[in-house]
Design goal:
With about 600 residues, the chain is an alpha+beta fold. The protein is about 60% helix and about 5% strand. The protein has 12 helices and 8 strands. It has a 5-stranded antiparallel beta sheet with strand order 7-6-5-4-8. Helix 5 runs antiparallel to helix 6 and helix 10 packs antiparallel against helix 11. The longest helix is centred in the first third of the chain and has 93 residues.
Length: about 600
């Protein structure tokens, strides 16, 4: 049927009737080529899989770390980047789809086609080889018949020639002549038989050869041609199918790209700037102008403050208990311990503390509402069980109800505590300036710390007239940086205005507290320890009990009165002092736990 259809067009069987070997080689190369194309699809699929894997690894490596604070105040650029990562992950998924479809829809088809082509080619070549062998066999038979005919013809001619010679020779007897005549007849008969056989084999061979080259072998060649064209059509279809695989995912890829563009358009620099303000606003007021200090005018408050200072140092000398250079820690050490770790957020600036407390109150309100709903549900269940004991035992619910009530009481108590802390934070207004300014607002006047030990509420003084926000300044002042003063019984050791030696471990800085001698050091040994005395800036009363758990802080009980020797510098801690049976003790307490009254 296929051969008849091909008779009307140019076919291999007609045009390539004598190119059996070349056709066999060409079809083999064609099958090798489509198998190579299958290898290309396999490698491309592997590259798609690897590309998708690397994209997913890229998304994982650049995924921003999650934190509760970042989730609350996320920048639009960060949100956009997260959306970009999601879209890239979706793109990776589409590459995996492409790889899978190439494997299942293209590569598998190529392998199956190549297998079928190889089998069909083998059958066609075997049939062609059989036909060729049969024709060669027939041609061999014809050659043998021809050689037999040639041999018999030559022998017949020799026999005829011998007979004519014998007949012309008068010396031979009649018997010899008859013998030659009989031999001639026999050879002629054999020659005719060989001729007839040769003619018969020639006819058979010609018929078979005609059948071979006009019908049988062209059918084989046409089958090989059909096989090769099938391979070519397969290549065409598989190339198109590989493109269709890309087309199928292109809408989703385009959607992913649109998502990336949409994420970029969602970035708002103004909103991000507002988030920065919301995230880092401290609530402090900028410092005011630094007043001019006229050193030529006497300070009326110097004498009073000097008397107060001498009284304080005298008490310290009497107890023999002061702050040693070994035990005092710089304030920065305490910051490192408590920063971000306080339950009441007292270590945060005012604005940030109010934000945290507000969030905590809202969280507790939600927990209280949830626990209240659970308790109400248990109450209803208990009532149903009491009304109908067939439904259940009320005692099984009672224990759960008691636990729920206890949890609810604890949550309400904690909620009340944080509500009070929030109210106190909202009402707390006596600290209005940043710690970098190193000043305290007192009764509408500005307090300064003088190098001569006096406190002036109308002027302020700092080293070289500039602020020092480094750790040794606004954040790490300690008692070891104050000058040592001894004034009891008229004893006063002066080093002629020289600064404290490095060997003593004591020094002065621009953040020295009131009463410290800047540029001079007065020191007196007491039990091989150095101690310092600071002029109190005021008093404070403990609003809540506080248990000191870290070095540098001191405990206090509710209602206890203490002296303020260093106000809060914006870190949530105030340095205080009190007199106990052990002598004078000083350390840091949370500012939110005390109520301060500073001297005017």
């Amino acid at each position: 049927m296929a051969a008849q259809e091909m008779d009307n067009s140019t076919t291999w069987g007609k045009e390539l009737w004598d190119q059996f070997d070349n056709i066999a080689t060409h079809t083999q190369k064609g099958i090798d080529f489509i198998e190579r194309f299958g290898g290309f699809i396999r490698d491309r699929s592997a590259i798609e899989v690897e590309y998708a894997l690397k994209l997913r690894r890229l998304v994982k490596n650049y995924q921003p770390k999650k934190s509760k604070e970042d989730e609350e105040n996320e920048f639009s650029s960060l949100i956009a980047f997260k959306n970009v990562l999601k879209e890239v992950a979706d793109l990776a998924g589409q590459r995996e789809v492409v790889a899978e479809n190439l494997q299942n829809q293209v590569l598998q088809g190529i392998l199956l086609l190549a297998k079928n082509l190889r089998e069909e080619r083998k059958k066609a070549l075997n049939q062609g080889a059989t036909l060729t062998q049969s024709l060669h066999t027939q041609i061999g038979t014809l050659d043998r018949a021809k050689r037999s005919y040639e041999k018999a013809f030559r022998e017949a001619e020799k026999a005829i020639e011998s007979y004519h010679k014998a007949d012309a020779d008068f010396h031979l007897s009649r018997a010899d002549v008859e013998k030659q005549r009989v031999n001639m007849n026999i050879r002629n008969s054999q020659s005719e038989d060989a001729k007839s056989e040769y003619a018969n084999q020639l006819q058979i061979t010609n018929k078979q050869q005609q059948q071979h080259y006009q019908i049988a072998l062209p059918e084989v060649f046409n089958r090989l041609q059909e096989l090769d064209e099938k391979r070519t059509r397969g290549m065409k279809e598989f190339i198109k199918r590989s493109a269709d695989v890309e087309y199928e995912v292109s809408p989703i890829i385009a959607h992913c790209l649109e998502g990336i563009v949409k994420a970029a358009d969602s970035i708002n620099e103004k909103d991000d700037s507002m988030i920065v303000i919301e995230k880092y606003q401290s609530g402090f007021q900028p410092p005011g102008d630094i007043p001019f200090e006229d050193l030529s005018k006497p300070d009326p408050d110097a004498a009073n403050n000097s008397q107060t200072h001498n009284s304080s140092t005298g008490l310290n000398h009497m107890t023999g208990k002061g702050t040693t250079k070994d035990k005092l820690k710089k304030r920065v050490g305490i910051f490192g311990i408590f920063t971000g770790n306080k339950e009441d957020f007292s270590d945060l600036p005012p604005t940030q503390r109010r934000k945290k407390l507000t969030a905590k109150v809202q969280e507790l309100q939600q927990k209280v509402a949830q626990e209240q709903a659970a308790s109400d549900g248990l109450m209803k269940m208990k009532g149903v069980y009491e009304a109908n004991s067939m439904l259940g035992d009320p005692r099984t619910v009672e224990e759960q109800l008691n636990e729920s009530v206890n949890r609810l009481d604890r949550l309400r108590h904690e909620l009340l505590r944080y509500q009070k802390l929030l109210e106190q934070a909202n009402n707390q207004s006596f600290i209005q300036h940043s710690p970098q300014s190193n000043r305290v607002i007192q009764n509408g006047q500005r307090s300064s710390r003088h190098s001569n030990g006096s406190s002036n509420h109308e002027n302020s003084h700092e080293d070289n007239g500039e602020d020092h926000p480094d750790d040794a300044g606004s954040l790490s002042r300690s008692a070891s940086e104050s000058s040592v003063q001894q004034a009891q019984n008229g004893l006063n050791i002066n080093n002629n205005g020289s600064s404290a030696s490095p060997e003593s471990g004591l020094g002065t800085s621009h953040t020295s507290l009131p009463g410290s001698g800047q540029g001079s050091t007065n020191e007196q040994p007491m039990n091989e320890e150095f101690y310092e005395a600071d002029t109190p800036l005021g008093t404070c009363r403990a609003l809540y009990p506080f248990d000191a758990t870290s070095e540098g802080s001191i405990p206090m009980s509710e209602g206890e009165e203490l002296q303020v020797i260093e106000v809060d510098q914006g870190d949530g801690w105030t340095r205080v002092r009190r007199f106990s049976s052990k002598g004078w003790e000083e350390g840091f307490v949370p500012t939110s736990y005390i109520e301060c009254t500073l001297y005017a």
